[in-house]
Design goal:
The protein is α/β, with parallel strands linked by helices and about 170 residues long. The protein is built from 5 helices and 5 strands; from the N terminus they run βββαβαβααα. The chain has a 5-stranded mixed sheet with strand order 3-2-1-4-5.
Length: about 170
């Protein structure tokens, strides 16, 4: 199964593609879509959509994982993140992708075994799990890879439950 994880944002939108085959996780492609804060918001959102759509068409993931909105310490970023998240959901719908929405704590639990893990712990585990030579940069990319791993696990578990009739 190929999973695309997205860490939505309007300045930096991290993405990570992995294959999950026979219990093994294989990194395929990862990075970040960046936009200029000087650009009009509609142009920033259009750039995110167009680049995501190209990624989806090129790599053809079966599932897209996206982080649920989390209103933590910095609630001033909630609206722009929500707008970017809407673009991600639109891209998933237009490409008929299975969507897995996952909370930050669920991602941390899936990657580290602890829902209260620090960002550094998540980055460390993503690097080790995917056998990367160095931690992915920026942090949004590492988060997106973590989301792709968690989404692949979740999608695989759902498929198994459906096969077993549960």
């Amino acid at each position: 199964m190929r999973a695309l994880g997205i860490d939505p944002g309007t300045a930096i939108c991290g993405y990570g593609l992995i294959d999950y085959v026979d219990g093994k996780l294989i990194p395929i492609h990862y990075g970040a879509i960046t936009t200029s804060p000087k650009a009009r918001m509609q142009d920033r959102l259009l750039k995110i959509y167009m680049e995501l759509d190209i990624l989806v068409k090129k790599f053809q993931p079966e599932v897209m994982g996206v982080e649920k909105l989390f209103f933590g310490r910095n609630s001033t970023t909630a609206i722009p993140v929500g707008q970017a998240r809407g673009i991600v959901l639109l891209c998933a719908a237009q490409n008929n992708l299975e969507l897995v929405e996952i909370s930050p704590n669920e991602v941390k639990m899936s990657i580290t075994g602890y829902g209260g893990a620090t960002k550094e712990q998540v980055i460390y585990m993503v690097t080790k799990i995917l056998n990367l030579a160095e931690p992915p940069k920026p942090d949004d990319t590492a988060d997106a890879l973590a989301i792709s791993i968690a989404a692949a696990y979740e999608s695989s578990n759902l498929a198994r439950r459906n096969l077993l009739g549960g």
